[in-house]
Amino acid sequence: MATSRAVPNLAFRRLRGQRSPAEFAAAVRRAAREIGEQVACDARYVGRVESGEIRCPNYAYERVFLHMFPGLSLTDLGFVARERVRGRGARAAAGASAAPSTIQNDEESDVLRRAFMAGGTATVAAAGLGAFGGIPAPRAGGRFGESEVAAVEAAVRQIRLLDDRHGADGLYRRAAGPLRTAYALLDAGTTVRRSTADRLHAGAGELALSVGWLAHDSGRLEDARSHYAEALATARVGGDPALEAHCFSNTSFLARDAGRFREAVRAAQAGQHAARHLASARLLALLALREAGGWAGLGDRAACEEALGRAHTLFGRGPSDADPEWMSFFGEPELEFLEAQSWSLLGDWPRAARHARRATALHHPHFTRNLALYRAQLAADLARGGSPEEAAATGERVLELLDEVQSSRIQAMLGETARVLQTHRGAPRVAAFLEGRAALTRA
């Protein structure tokens, strides 16, 4: 049987010119920021385009590329028409021979959009995880290669995409299967290339972190703790400081949410130690914010302010090529949100509300779950700060998003806001919010 081969994209390669793939990827990310997009472009993505593996970019990348090269069309850039990639005929032809990662886009596909419109978050979870659930099992003799590693990496990206849009509650159970397969490959497999083994270690660790985050956001804190510990062990066995720093960032976040504030501080500091040679100021900024949250929970205002100051200084150094792909969510809105959480823990509600309000104003439309989270934080701070009607109005805007976003953590935040607002239930706006939330809970 004849198999189709990827056709190198020579036009795109010519447009890169003398720049290295990493330099060109940095230019793509800069162009994205100019038009308000966020893409996690790296040298590997550029290589996939130039090799022909990516035949047509997703919509976000399309807007960025057309911005970078005004006057050129997608076909001028060496891509094929979208309908040839997305159509039934193209899928049928590709399905027999393509590896799982070659038929998945890095952004939400038309299939996922239609699934969501038809059936909500649970249907999206089924459609999306069905797409990346096909990580190949270990071959005879336990060998693995590029196709298995690429499938693990694609699974990580798809989980992050679905979580950014829809929250964790409908995803967690389904994500456990791909994770088990990834670790079966890691435990049983051998490969002739050290670089492939290193990628599988990193991919399995990132997948464990992604599944752990789904557990965290859906209220399964002990499950999350177990997944994060598994990822940390993988990072240390593989000698991967970037993965280790990511593990400690998530562990610190989880400890803060669980009220283990001393552990949150220690984990954040350990993450900063692991990341000290990675040349990513943004990663260090995030870890400093995690540390600030721990100090705030301990009631140490001076230590919290010192950590916040470090975070702002590091963030101000800007992005770099060394920033990890998983940090695409960490922009100015998240910086403001995490600072709001610290002031909230310290009991400075007006200051917390100012930062939470900035987070909602600056949010990127791709991160729907984060917008709901930022508004939930703002509603809580307003309620505690003595602005019950504004808190209720903000809470109602969160309720409007919960048809699209399912997150037990956000639901818990709204529940606490409702509890605080009970004493103001005579106000019409407050009564409307309380009734809306009660109706959602009943449903």
Description:
The chain is mostly helical and 443 residues long. It folds into three domains: 1-98; 105-239; 344-353 and 361-443. Helix content is 69%, strand content 0%. The chain contains 22 helices and no strands. It has helices at 10-16, 21-34, 43-51, 59-68, 82-86, 88-95, 110-119, 121-132, 146-166, 172-188, 194-217, 221-237, 241-257, 261-274, 281-297, 301-315, 332-345, 349-362, 368-384, 388-401, 408-421, 428-442. Helix 20 (388-401) packs antiparallel against helix 21. The longest helix has 24 residues, at 194-217. The chain is globular, with a radius of gyration of 22 Å. The model is unreliable at 85-133 (pLDDT under 50).
Write the layout of secondary structure elements.
Elements (H helix, E strand, L loop, with lengths): L9 H7 L4 H14 L8 H9 L7 H10 L13 H5 L1 H8 L14 H10 L1 H12 L13 H21 L5 H17 L5 H24 L3 H17 L3 H17 L3 H14 L6 H17 L3 H15 L16 H14 L3 H14 L5 H17 L3 H14 L6 H14 L6 H15 L1
Helix pairs in contact: 2-3, 2-4, 7-8, 8-9, 9-10, 9-11, 10-11, 11-12, 11-13, 12-13, 13-14, 13-15, 14-15, 15-16, 15-17, 17-18, 17-19, 18-19, 19-20, 19-21, 20-21, 20-22, 21-22
